[in-house]
Amino acid sequence: MKKKSVRELILSGLSIAIGLLLPMIFHAFGLGSAFLPMHIPVLIAGFAVSLPFAVIVGVLTPLLSALLTGMPPLFPVLPFMIFELAAYGAVASLLYRKFRLNVYISLIASMIAGRIVSGMAVWVLAALFGAKLPGPAAFVAGSITGSIPGIVIQIVFIPALVIILDRNRLLRKEGLSGES
Q1: Which residue among 10, 51, 141, 145 is buried most deeply as judged by most CB within 10 Å?
Q2: Is the pTM of this model over 0.70?
Q3: Which domains are assigned to the chain?
């Protein structure tokens, strides 16, 4: 296995582990839904690992959490969280690592893309599986207004951490041609 793959595998595993632990800590104090603790390590993984690894972190983190802790509930929350978090990781990795966009632009775009994808997943769950969920627009609006503290934490904390990691050469961006 290449050195890059081992590094990404380790970072992905660490991100998943943090994504399992942070929600348990926040939920112990009744702060889980408002502060979006699972989103933080998935977004950071998007900045730290390549696209395939970032998507895997976005998929496995809520899936393992649901299976090991019961959070999020298997239905209807888990399916749309998987798509939302996979989109977060994918867009952050693609924009920041591949296309070398600014950390803030990459973060905001990934947060918007994740919400749009979760809204689409909610529509599919309601239309095809009869899930009792609000319409996609109402769902996205509610998920934004109900999690403003978490969104603020993401916008303040994640770019600062990414900038620190980048300055210390702990992040490796890919070039437009795909080299790392």
Answers
A1: 51
A2: yes
A3: 3-167 (1.10.1760.20)
